Amino acid sequence: MTTMTLAKALNSGLRAAMELDPKVLVMGEDVGKLGGVFRVTDGLAKDFGEQRVLDTPLSESGIIGTAVGLAIRGFRPVCEIQFDGFVFPGFDQIVSQLAKVRFRSQGKVPMPVVVRIPFGGGIGAVEHHSESPESLFAHVAGLKVVACSNPDDAHWMIRQAIASDDPVIFFEPKRRYWEKGEVSETEPAPLFSSRVVRSGADVTVACYGPLVKTCLEAAAAAEAEGTDIEVIDLRSLSPLDLGPVFGSVRRTGRLVVVSEAPSEASVTSEVAARVQEECFHSLEAPVLRVTGFDTPYPPSKCEDDYLPDLDRVLDGVDRALGW
Amino acid sequence: MSRPQSWVPTDPRSAPTREHVLSGLHGTDEGGAELVQLLTPEGQRVSDDRFGSWADDVGAEELKGYYRDMVLVRRVDREGNALQRQGQLGIWVPLLGQEAAQVGAGRAATPRDMIFPSYREHGVAWCRGIDPTDLLGIFRGTDHGSWDPIEARFHLYTIVIGNQCLNATGYAMGQKFEGKVGDGPDAEATMCFFGDGATSQGDVHEGFVWAAAYDAPVVFYCQNNQWAISVPLERQTRVPLFQRARGYGFPGVRVDGNDVLACLAVTRWALEECRTGNGPVLIEAFTYRMDAHTTSDDPSRYRLADELELWKLKDPIERVRVNLVREHGVGQDFFDEVQAKSDELAARFRAFCVAMPDPGPDRMFSEVYAELSPQLAAEKSAYLEYHASFEGA
């Protein structure tokens, strides 16, 4: 076990993957000399050279489109999109090529590409720097979508994503980059799995990314008031691994799904739909959601209102219990 | 706005006026002074100081080969149109008129080079050894492309306009990273096919920028067939397309796209430039789409038949036939033999098409992922079970 920040855990995960396989490339805007605007790729260019850590032109479609070509050639590119709101120029290449080349070629051309995207708000940023677009990608067949929430997962999930022969959209909780945690010596869990991060008997809370910590804090606060919350970190958003959620809901009868993203047609709606299909007779209350609002991400002076916090999570829990 | 009757030019080769353009009529077949040509529309072999030597080795036998390629490809193309009209294909994308642009470029590439096509490149596919029947699934709806792109070094058709320019650039960057650019015998290059309409896409611009930034060994091969479905070239550009390369810092050449020898020579040169580290290069093959955009299109709504008549005089196949007869004394036997071969190929193409089985419902779930998720596996088995419940009903 080593203690490090989430950003450093990603960095060491990238480094390990690059050492293991010379076909792994890191590419993106400012990822070389600067080490990325969040320093996630710090030092990699120095150690692996500019042909494996590419400071690319400022062009997101170019980053994804050339990564597709490099993958056809046999490379395993790891692309960095600088901020969540900048991914959309590359969305066409992600949806039209990255997600479909394997299917189009019936497996003859695999697409082992990882697209890293720092996501979510809470950092007081200007427009386009705080978004949670994960549901847009989860909706696209051919992609896999994951979100890490802590340094251990950050380190191991990025390594597993790079090792995957499928394209993985990898969401990193940017406001947690500098928070520290322990990183295991060995792989703690498969990539596409969810995990119960706190056991509880009264209400199940499912969440991912930056809000896992918020939900754990809410659970600790609720415990003081006598409510026992089970917290599940979904980790994989597509495919969803809902077995642990079903098991939990069958015991608690109540589920609150939490996310920063707007609720409409989202990962949280998908979880709600599937839980009611599988656990209909176990539910004591409808599946409730605590999410960002169905608005564009607001100016940062409003984000404390926009983002689900400890109180809003507990409000959701209370509503589920009081149904 | 002028009416069609009012624009008939006194000199049929004059450039279109702004009025012609605004009225939606293109009306030029004039490639300008910078057009590289080695075989005139009248079938006369001519010299070119810069590129002529790249086709010096082409004698009667080679030229007969290119003639055969073009006739066979055109025959397959016409059969594709017919199969669509008869309900055997959902759609066909004709290449009529672009045979020289495709065969010249396709025959310039070595087996080591990689090619990224758009969706009209049946002639390039032919040169890569892909059997025409392998194209049918795309248009019949049984698959999205059935050949092995890695083995054939010919990527699957890309339908979203311009996407492949970035994919090709990335592939070429990979060739460079692997040390396949230089004077060695294993040097490689990449070629990317796209049309005049695609040049308005951001991905083509980004492809040019990236290829230049990384000195990627990629030949951007633009078949300017004058029309992006119904929209003439003037809506895409103010300058001749080959001149755009200059703005990105690499050479651009305009070649007579109906001249198979010129296309071969210029592409050989461009690929060699790329293999030896002087890439990228832009080639504009100045040609004409003599048929509709696809079998769903109706060109009579947006262009005059006169324009087609002008271009028929520049037919890419006829000029080779004339040259073979006049300058190489090739007799009728050869042409009869090619004709017979093309009929044979068309018959095989047709027979294969009508016998193609529909894929089963399990095809939908095949190779979506390397690792099928439990969720998708459950969807698959539930649907297959439902589907099977109708059997014998």
UniProtKB/TrEMBL annotation, chain A:
One of its GO terms (molecular function) is oxidoreductase activity. Signal peptide: none annotated. Gene3D superfamilies: 3.40.50.920, 3.40.50.970. This is Pyruvate dehydrogenase E1 component subunit beta. The keyword tRNA-binding does not apply. PANTHER family: PYRUVATE DEHYDROGENASE E1 COMPONENT BETA SUBUNIT (PTHR43257), PYRUVATE DEHYDROGENASE E1 COMPONENT SUBUNIT BETA (PTHR43257:SF2). It comes from the Bacteria.
TrEMBL record, chain B:
The keyword Nucleotide-binding does not apply. Residues 68-341 form the Dehydrogenase E1 component domain. It catalyses: N(6)-[(R)-lipoyl]-L-lysyl-[protein] + 3-methyl-2-oxobutanoate + H(+) = N(6)-[(R)-S(8)-2-methylpropanoyldihydrolipoyl]-L-lysyl-[protein] + CO2. It comes from Pseudonocardia halophobica. Its cofactor is thiamine diphosphate. This is 2-oxoisovalerate dehydrogenase subunit alpha. Residues 1-28 are annotated as: Disordered. SUPFAM superfamilies: Thiamin diphosphate-binding fold (THDP-binding). InterPro entries: Alpha-ketoacid_DH_E1_comp, DH_E1, THDP-binding. Gene3D superfamilies: 3.40.50.970. Keywords: Oxidoreductase, Pyruvate, Thiamine pyrophosphate. Belongs to the BCKDHA family.
